[in-house]
Amino acid sequence: MTFLQSILAPLLRPLGFVPVSSANLLTPGPAQDEDDPRLDHQILRHSPTFPLSVLLLTDSYKLSHPFQYPAAKRYPSTVATLSRKARTIIEQAFEKTCDPESMALVPSRLHDFGFRGCTSVEQTIIGGTAHLLNFEGTDNVSAAYFAQYALNDGHFAGVSIPATEHSVMTSFETEKAAMLHMIETFGSSIFAVVMDSLDYGRALRELLPAVAEAKVRAGGWLVVRPDSGDIVAVVMDALNIMSKVFGYTINTRGFKVITGASVIHGDGVTLPAISRLLDAMAEAGFAAQNVAFGMGAGLLQKVNRDELSLATKLCRVVLPSGAAREVMKSPIDAPGKISLPGSFAVRLDPTAAAQGVYLPVTHAREEFTGPEGVDDESLAVEGDLLQVVYDCGPVAVQHETMAATRVRLSRDWAAAAPVPPASSRPELDGHTPDAIVYQTVSPFLRAKARRVRAEQLDRLEAAYTQDA
């Protein structure tokens, strides 16, 4: 096994990312006996879309704490969520300002520019693949290659276009020469040219008109890229000038669509910046399809565990005597850092499902198995979204292709229940934990958490009293 495979296999397979044909990357070990020093590692898979405060995965170890880190999947989950939120913003703008057939352009509207901002090639693959769950546009070659050949049966998962960077533009004697070279080489297809190497405003006002005839004669699509300045100001400058140079049409919703040209902005792009620009474009009468976005470090590097409050906590221990004790964390001065006790199952809320709303709910396992069946693995919980995919080695699970995961993700995201406001979240004995949302934790489990917390506080009080 290569170093890259050894890193990627345990990280991506539990998320449903690696097909069965790649199962030989990890070799199953024999069943453990009592003296086996290896750890019993079991990861459970969740549906690709889930609201905050729903159980994502569980792991079982003889010694849990040092091995929670290989099981942590927060990085690709956070990148995929950030990317999906961007897609939601863009889709809403398309629905408002573009013709219905233009929705086919949405998968190309957020481009992965993040390769050079990552710490390693391995990170580019993991984060870049997560982005490709939502979009097809990418300059992240490693992620596009991995997604295509390891996850999507050899079919394209990411695409890009010919484009210049500043070193290309400045290597020619003039920017006009660079532009004409791009038009001559790629002008019959779609290509992008960065415009701010020297004087962005002058390039828009003088260079674009100077090459317009050659561009139109070539018949392709020009993408202009400003790479500095305020995103709204520089993009709106480009749209206004390009609409005069190349002309435009008015779509059925009454918005301008520039003929044969558009803009991409990839400098310091954030979700608020995307919203701000799309709002400004709509106000000025331009359709959202006139612009695309590139995200680099903001997509693949500037994310952390706190973005989605992802945490791994101890919930149940089995003592040397064989007795089990359910435990939870509930710091009195930090109610938002509470955890839940016991063993769990995740099922769709039937009332929400009947209304077409996708709402996974975390339950205590004994709600379905009874207290005596919590540890009986033969007792399956009907409708449980958690699925064992790794148990001391890969298990025989048929993983879907990336194309199928994209379809499922889009369906579940569109039907997902909104996170309720803080005012509707439950109190737990005076605590108002931000990490627990009323709708996503079953009433039984909330009551159980209150009981376990009270028992832990009683033991604490008794211990302090005895010591005194």
Automatic annotation (TrEMBL):
Residues 109-339 form the Nicotinate/nicotinamide phosphoribosyltransferase domain. GO terms for molecular function: nicotinamide phosphoribosyltransferase activity. The keyword Transport does not apply. Gene3D superfamilies: Aldolase class I (3.20.20.70). It is an enzyme of class 2 (transferase). Keywords: Glycosyltransferase, Pyridine nucleotide biosynthesis, Signal, Transferase. Pfam families: NAPRTase (PF04095). Pathway: Cofactor biosynthesis; NAD(+) biosynthesis; nicotinamide D-ribonucleotide from 5-phospho-alpha-D-ribose 1-diphosphate and nicotinamide: step 1/1. It comes from the Eukaryota. One of its GO terms (biological process) is NAD+ biosynthetic process. InterPro entries: Aldolase_TIM (IPR013785), N/Namide_PRibTrfase (IPR041525), Nicotinamide_PRibTrfase (IPR016471), Nicotinate_pribotase-like_C (IPR036068). Residues 1-23 form the signal peptide. Its EC number is 2.4.2.12. Belongs to the NAPRTase family. This is Nicotinamide phosphoribosyltransferase. It comes from Fonticula alba.
